[in-house]
């Protein structure tokens, strides 16, 4: 039989790191194939290459009978491959419900509504998800998320199912259900090939064929029985360790289970009736236990059963709703600083500072935990030795393998030598060798130093090493006792079976065991209708997600309104009541007449006169006077005599625009004054030239009239662009972009589908802003509203396209937001006619401005409001804006790779 | 004492974090050097190269002389047009001012008849049109009196001495460079302090810090101190080296006083950044929230358009909630007008008050936010 995938000489590097090193491998078809090995050996890269979501670098990858390097082959086999990336529910959309998620995937494969509904109903039935069709994916437990992910992968009857660590971090019961589900699917579709990476050796033991990997290479292939026989090991885990190169294996030793020393029976941790409610939901329901000093207490339970919440209450991180915790007999209070000195805590996710080196992290924590300065260096050395960190002391934690990072976390938790350690799934995702090393340290701490250890885990072999364990489910403790006691009590043959039995007794829904019937594939659909369905899948999903995200919705809908109000009222060039002050040293009728000339016009507001230049200095220094008038003694006398008196006008030049405006008005007042005097005295030439100044388009000369249409241009650039940019980058950040890489959706379908909701939203904003302009700011709308609305529609198509283009280059949401804002705001504010008319710009500025859509829309917007623009002007601008829109789309398509690099 | 030591160590950690963020460092360097210089020359509200068209229906020596008087830098070289051309150009936004010189203008004038020059203003260019029209009128009036009475030394009964305090030539970049600097302080401070909080939440490190014997106020203080110190130092560097040094903008007042006020401002804005961060879960959300805030703070600070031009209610509102308005008043008074502490202390007190309120709210929300 043809292998389902064949790799020859495949290498893959990320920068300086080699993920795959000349791997040649044939993966058999129609079987359960598995990849095993520690994390960071290249399992995920290999799967991504086989799935076609990552672009190959060197070597040939052939899948389903053709080379994955060829675009046509990829497109042809994409509908036959299903890929489920690593991480719980990583390719699911947390705010979408179970059914909505599946609808989305069904559409991505171009299925018709009837076919989708039939398939979804059957899959939900088979996976026991049927009771919760409307629950958001983010609210599902880890095991249910993985089942839903599997449904999503199976919705199109793939021939090759690729699962990347589907059960990591999932509790034993959910794990077993997951594999049963796969077995049933395979029973109905015997031809299907399954390729899985896993860290659980007991799972891999049930596969038909496995490849063991180490450091980017395949070190052995064959059936589990083969590998065990070859190494003479009893379990696959031991076989794997035996297969490792000697150098790697050297550090490994079986974890010695040492007997616990009697420490006099002091109780280290005592919890009584702990309850934690979040709103109506009871996460922890009357949990209590008492743990003697030096015990290793294992804490087991299904995903989301309240383990983490309980542990947070024990550390004082969360305040319980009811109940008390005592540590060595002392009640734990709120923000209890002394109690914290007695606890070492390690949370589920890596939570040390990535920007500090290993040594710096240790020093910082030593300081914060108040390790005495003279003891600090010694303690540092001790910890480095004990946790084997000396070699990586200067390394950044991010660059270390997970196993070492977890050791570092433990070292940090132990830096102040606390008598109690609380560890929340410290070994999740860590490979067997590193896990054993970690446990050897725990054993030593407990047995030699008498440290009390409270640890939660999903690994049964780890649970078996604990002195006592407790089983938790749905906020309650089901069992407490030694592992052996629990096995006996449940009448099971292993701890895992006992655990599953305990959980099954609790769970109301019994495994249905229904087969997964294969619905008949729908009638073949036209290419166009399938393409439209795929694009619509993205539009529909984007709309749902947006409607459920208050912050994005706030930004999209209220952001424009707030900006319009602020800018409409705030950016005002209407100058009135400019403060002016007089130093009238003449006190004559003429000097008073001149002063009155200033106070008579509304643009100036008179303030108290000043008595000396020093006083003026002070008042102007505070910004209290914009214009100062200095009339010398003898002003009136000189005027009548025909001598030319000299007056002084001082402006506050700190704000040039204001000074210039004040100058303009002052000149007018002075001209008026001198003309009258000249006429009365009969001196000089009275000018026969009159000036007629007419303000066109905005007779009242109101700032708001001109600013509102321009601000409309600015807001419709900024907000839609940022929203569109975030929409694509979000997927990169959350990992759901994998669906774009792994399904038949094309780049143009993806981009247009995602653009549509934002386009519609932006156009709604346009109407809201128009309403605001006409009502609140009373801007007359003299031209054609329909023409303006049409131009605006094309304009927002261009601006959302611009955002998508930016998103092709950015990796994080924050980079997308700021890059879009910076790139969009500078030309729009400075070179698009918002403040400076485009006609007054220099050549460079004008060209720069016209290279963005804003400068083309602004004249239409202003024109339609104030200059009576109609369809001809709107259409010619819309044509240019249309070119922008198409250009942005084309560039975005070119810059958005369909495969990961 | 222990609290102070904790703050000190956490501040050191925060500074390392900033040092490790290459993108942020590049952004800070760019914004405080090149950007200050670039943007200060870009948009200005002053009359500058205003596009002007002249409809000369007189075609006389005098009309030609008047046309020649319209010159850069205030106006762009005037373009001669016919009346319909000018109307179209104005409608299309290609000409802001249109001067129409009527037929027989010179002859009527010499004959002693009253004549009228018409100036049509595109009032949609509100920032420049008003001042532009009045400058055009002024220019033409001067040119006319010079042309008609060449021998009269002064035909005016009064001589006016104009003086612009603090900025004799009303150089716009003096103003905009410093305002740009202040805008940059606002933008980066909000982002930097907010990001420092959200980064910890996204990475789960804040939870880790909370189980340590460290109090929330120590964490908050360390974040404000570290990000504030970086931005303060960068802005002082920019003021002295870029604005004063490279661009030659004279700085009138005491640098020490400015630094004091800027330090208060930086603390106030950092607290505001932390407050905003407490309402969001991810950097993406924070970005969406912070952008409108930045735009509002900057536009309505009084640094772009005069505060007194805004409606009274808006002025009162901004003075109550935004430290930026006070900082602009403070900075203008100190940097341009050389004001001393006795003049600006009320503004400093207002900024300090706002900082206190923001920090109080952040601390009150701290546990609740991080727990949820």
UniProtKB/TrEMBL annotation, chain A:
GO CC term (a single one): membrane
Bilayer-crossing regions: 706-729, 756-779, 785-807, 814-836, 874-896
Alphabetized UniProt keyword annotations: ATP-binding, Membrane, Nucleotide-binding, Transmembrane, Transmembrane helix
Superkingdom of the source species: Bacteria
Pfam families: ABC2_membrane_3, ABC_tran
Domain ABC transporter residues, every copy: 5-240, 269-499
Every ABC transmembrane type-2 domain range: 667-899
InterPro entries: AAA+_ATPase, ABC2_perm_RbbA, ABC2_TM, ABC2_TM_bact-type, ABC_transporter-like_ATP-bd, ABC_transporter-like_CS, P-loop_NTPase
Membrane topology designation: Multi-pass membrane protein
Localization of this protein: Membrane
Record bears the keyword Secreted: no
Protein name according to UniProt: Ribosome-dependent ATPase
From TrEMBL, chain B:
Keyword Transport: yes
Transmembrane parts of this sequence: 21-40, 174-198, 219-243, 255-279, 286-304, 348-366
GO MF entry, a single one: ABC-type transporter activity
Localization annotation: Cell membrane
InterPro entries, sorted: ABC-2_transporter_component, ABC2_TM, ABC2_TM_bact-type
Keywords for the protein's UniProt record, in alphabetical order: Cell membrane, Membrane, Transmembrane, Transmembrane helix, Transport
Annotated membrane topology: Multi-pass membrane protein
Main location: membrane
Family that this chain belongs to: Belongs to the ABC-2 integral membrane protein family.
Name this polypeptide is given: ABC-2 type transport system permease protein
Lineage: Bacteria, Pseudomonadati, Pseudomonadota, Alphaproteobacteria, Rhodobacterales
